[in-house]
Amino acid sequence: xxxxxxxxxxxxxxxxxxxxxxxxxxxxxxxxxxxxxxxxxxxxxxxxxxxxxxxxxxxxxxxxxxxxxxxxxxxxxxxxxxxxxxxxxxxxxxxxxxxxxxxxxxxxxxxxxxxxxxxxxxxxxxxxxxxxxxxxxxxxxxxxxxxxxxxxxxxxxxxxxxxxxxxxxxxxxxxxxxxxxxxxxxxxxxxxxxxxxxxxxxxxxxxxxxxxxxxxxxxxxxxxxxxxxxxxxxxxxxxxxxxxxxxxxxxxxxxxxxxxxxxxxxxxxxxxxxxxxxxxxxxxxxxxxxxxxxxxxxxxxxxxxxxxxxxxxxxxxxxxxxxxxxxxxxxxxxxxxxxxxxxxxxxxxxxxxxxxxxxxxxxxxxxxxxxxxxxxxxxxxxxxxxxxxxxxxxxxxxxxxxxxxxxxxxxxxxxxxxxxxxxxxxxxxxxxxxxxxxxxxxxxxxxxxxxxxxxxxxxxxxxxxxxxxxxxxxxxxxxxxxxxxxxxxxxxxxxxxxxxxxxxxxxxxx
Length: 510
Prior knowledge:
By secondary structure, the chain is mostly beta strands. It has 5 domains: 2-130, Immunoglobulin-like, CATH 2.60.40; 134-225, Immunoglobulins (Immunoglobulin-like), CATH 2.60.40; 235-312, Immunoglobulin-like (Sandwich); 317-400, Immunoglobulins (Immunoglobulin-like); 408-508, Immunoglobulin-like (Sandwich), CATH 2.60.40. It has 1 helix and 47 strands. The strands form 10 sheets. Strands 1, 2, 4, 7, 8 and 9 form a 6-stranded antiparallel sheet that branches. Strands 3, 5, 6, 10, 11 and 12 form a 6-stranded mixed sheet that branches. The relative contact order is 0.07. Residues 500-508 have low confidence and may be disordered.
């Protein structure tokens, strides 16, 4: 048994069995075909004749096959040859409607012949059915503000809908076609090239239509403006002493500066000159700020550009500056001291000063060379670097020359008097005038102790003395530093011969 659809016709176009039929409308699609059924025929002994049955037209709705039309077949519907019987019925006419199908992609139609006596059944192959389906490309368009490059929009006839098509375009405003403003127009071609001239332009809409036929769903290409992400550097120094000028170089037309600000107005303020585009940053206090500028394009989109880590005034390194150099200034030599940490564009000069026991040999912004003033015997010295216009003073204490005997004394420990044959402890004390910037005093002591036995200590400030004879005992001491020996300081004591405390007791003679 052979079953198929023959002479399929739609819109005066013929289709083969199993061929896809692309419809041009959603409703009232008239299709015609002839049902071809051929069965074996033999009237001899043991032969058989197929005479009764049903012919059913089915459509595939997308989820299931559903009968559409059914025809009863009897012995009058056949023609015969020697070997076969052929079904002979009129041409079948169908009207296919979109509502028959639950699959938006369409479905298919086929026929089934069911022979009732022998219970034979055979179906034809399926002719796929598609309904009109169109899409627009690009479906979404993102434009940079001011970019007037041409854009071509395409309508794709995805299911090859037959017939003569026209395209009705509705592009609103903001577009040129062939250099002329357009809003509503028709084309026979499936594409159109447009140029944006105002931003944002309208969405592009198009409605495909069959000439003298059905209108299809409007297609929309959504047109938006891209995010405004400028990348323009703010030019200017990375520091501001009092005021600084900043600007955008080569800012394109259509982009303007709307406002400026700093991250901390207690450190610096920012003002904009609208006529020149210059930004003035003015110091309020020392610190670090970020300068921000809000840019706006012709589509009224805004974005913020920044310049970070602008040093306002003096950095902390200047406040923490130090003077380095030798801790001692000895007679007859020159010593150079260096200011470290104060090198900054906002430090235009450094003022050096020294204590009265020092002479300035030479100086510049970073160094000073000094020597001892031999006419001043003050031991503690001071070197100072001051930065004009600020409260910054950097100090370095030094020890100058050799210690004088001013402030140098000999102390007798406890209340014991000097006696012959008895040990008494002495201590040297040196307390010169000093500055806060001086390092701790670093001196040793030398002693002159005549006519006595002496016990030494690791700390040279201490001595134990045991006189050999009574009478006056004069003891000297001097401080010793890196520059040499200082001046002697003397003290005279009376030594009593009676160690038992009953004799003539003498007191020190200062």
